Amino acid sequence: MTGADSGNPVLVEVIRGALAESRHTGAVAISDAHGRLMLALGDVERPIYPRSAIKAMQALPLIESGAADTFALGEDELAVACASHSGDKVHVEAVQSLLAKASLEESYLACGAHWPISEDATRTLIWARERPRAIHNNCSGKHAGMLATAQHLGLEPRGYERPDHPVQVMIARIISETCDVDLDPSRMGIDGCSVPTFALPLRALARGFARLGSGEGLPPERASAARRLFHACFSEPAHVAGEGRFDTIVLRALAPNCFTKGGAEGVHCASLPKLGLGIALKIDDGAKRGTELVISEIVAALIPEAREALSGQLDGEVLNWRGTRVGRIAPSEALRNAMRALASERAR
Amino acid sequence: MTGADSGNPVLVEVIRGALAESRHTGAVAISDAHGRLMLALGDVERPIYPRSAIKAMQALPLIESGAADTFALGEDELAVACASHSGDKVHVEAVQSLLAKASLEESYLACGAHWPISEDATRTLIWARERPRAIHNNCSGKHAGMLATAQHLGLEPRGYERPDHPVQVMIARIISETCDVDLDPSRMGIDGCSVPTFALPLRALARGFARLGSGEGLPPERASAARRLFHACFSEPAHVAGEGRFDTIVLRALAPNCFTKGGAEGVHCASLPKLGLGIALKIDDGAKRGTELVISEIVAALIPEAREALSGQLDGEVLNWRGTRVGRIAPSEALRNAMRALASERAR
């Protein structure tokens, strides 16, 4: 809470005409499972809230507790438990099915309601003269997973979202172990969907995602749980976000070589299982429009054969309301230089 | 287009729990009509695109040309010509009326279509199974004003949005004269609504707004035109933005002591006619959520009796989807220090 600038480099520029109209600073860490940093751009030690980018970690107890087996959850239900979904019919049905298998009702969801991310789903609700419900909240799958875990363990499901509920305590311990970092209770915030979010450094987050993807440095049952969740997300990419959205596009195009997951306030994480690397990014101002370009640039630098599949994500057009191109969203010089260095290090 | 940080100070912090989760850097200038700076926070010399913040300047030819008199435009029509409106019924009707008085049809509008800013208006269109039209574009009033100007002057209205159309040439000259700055054609961009936007320094913009409000330093007919537009906006504040929106709230609460107008990509300008001051702000990353708090803080520092009316704008809550407060949007230390200095300078 100082008045000083973060000092992080500009990563993305929004260009109109010949001028950079707006710019996004930020920091990014790329790490292996042992915590060796392949890239540290900006301040990767300052704790940031990971928000929805770590939903796959928050879903680990669903597997580790045995709930997923007991309730015979399918790939679609596991994928939606890791999702920031669009609230489309397929998502709502997967969450309903997950809840039903755990003998729970929609009314248990504590995430609050918002209009679906999907415009089609929003229009459908409006046509039906309905309001959105908690199940349309992009986090409802994660919440259903937490509820199913509580139910399976014989815990009171009501209050599952509170920091002192055993399911949340379990999740905090798993994040701490996976990222090899102490979670400071004074650095806990409440997420938009009412569950705790603990601030941790990008460096630690990147290491956690390296471990999730490769299994290295994780106890065997956790490595297996992570593998099962990633497999579900790669198998059902539309359940992790939704049609037309970044994470779904990347998961579909690059499975099983690249897992990505965005969160609110400019956070995005990724895991490159074959390379044993994890990536964690925070845009300082919280803008989403910068994150997807940065993640795409990094993935394309590390997996050259992915560049073509990502081309639509690497060219950020700025259009006017008539659809004419009037600018572009582009990597900054600092990011381009870092990517060049990364690509040549990778090629060695 | 360098990779370097802007070096501008953090103005606004978004706080969750005990941590600043995101932050917005930016620059702000406060000037009198003579170009004397009362405040320069950050880089106020770098040219920025003013976007919709200068719609009142872009509407000056509508008055100066005599079009407003010939077509007997009312306060609502003049206010909507200066507006980024919500696309509600009142706005659409005012634009239709403006066009009808100039014997023009909706099809002349070149601004492109987008869903109304107003959720009610959007729902109404969806219920009617309609798509938004150009008239729902928040800029349609500005465009109707440009068209009426062309019509009155006997110019071809088609193509009125192009940089070389006489109406746009006239507007560029007026901006240049009012802000006392040369407009560099190499620093012209195309706005979201397809008309030109010329980059100019915040320092010059602030001076222009000081002149618009006080009339000082303007030729008499321009001072009179600006007075008429401000009077229209103060009389019909709901036409300048829409119910529940910042500029409408401030215009309604503080008329005739404070005119404010926001633009895309984090720009906001204001004029304090009685104090003879103009204010121009740009948030580097283009986020709107920072601008309204900064403008409110500045206005409250300069007009102490406005603080109560602005209290709802000074307390930026961050709510989760259940409506619980989980954070806040707050002025940074740098901004708070600058505001203290400003208030004491003002009190002297």
What does this structure look like?
Two copies of one chain form a homodimer. The first copy, chain A, has 348 residues and is α+β, with helices and mostly antiparallel strands. The first copy, chain A, has one domain: 3-Layer(aba) Sandwich (Beta-lactamase). Helix content of chain A is 42%, strand content 19%. Chain A has 15 helices and twelve strands. In chain A, strands 1, 2, 3, 8, 9, 10, 11 and 12 form an eight-stranded antiparallel beta sheet that branches. In chain A, α4 crosses α5 and α4 packs across α7. The radius of gyration of chain A is 20 Å and the shape is globular. The mean pLDDT of chain A is 96.
DSSP, total strands of chain A:
12
Cα distance spanning the termini of chain A: 42 Å
CA radius of gyration of chain A is: 20 Å
The chain-level mean pLDDT of chain A equals 96
Tally of helical segments of chain A: 15
CATH architecture of chain A: 3-Layer(aba) Sandwich
Please give the domain count of chain A.
Answer: 1
Q: Summarize the helix and strand pattern of chain A as letters.
A: EEEEHHHHHHHHEEEHHHHEEEHHEEH
Largest interface: pair, residues per side? A-B, 65 and 65 residues
List low-pLDDT spans of chain A.
Answer: none
CATH class label of chain A:
Alpha Beta
What name does CATH use for the topology of chain A? Beta-lactamase
Biggest beta sheet attributes of chain A: 8 strands, antiparallel
Oligomeric grouping of the chains: homodimer
Which helices and strands, and how do they pair?
The structure is a homodimer of 348-residue chains.
Chain A: E1 10-16, E2 19-32, E3 37-41, E4 47-48, H1 55-58, H2 60-64, H3 67-70, H4 75-81, H5 89-101, H6 119-127, H7 140-152, H8 166-179, E5 188-190, E6 196-198, E7 200-201, H9 202-214, H10 220-235, H11 237-240, H12 246-254, E8 259-263, E9 267-272, E10 277-283, H13 288-302, H14 311-314, E11 316-319, E12 325-331, H15 333-347
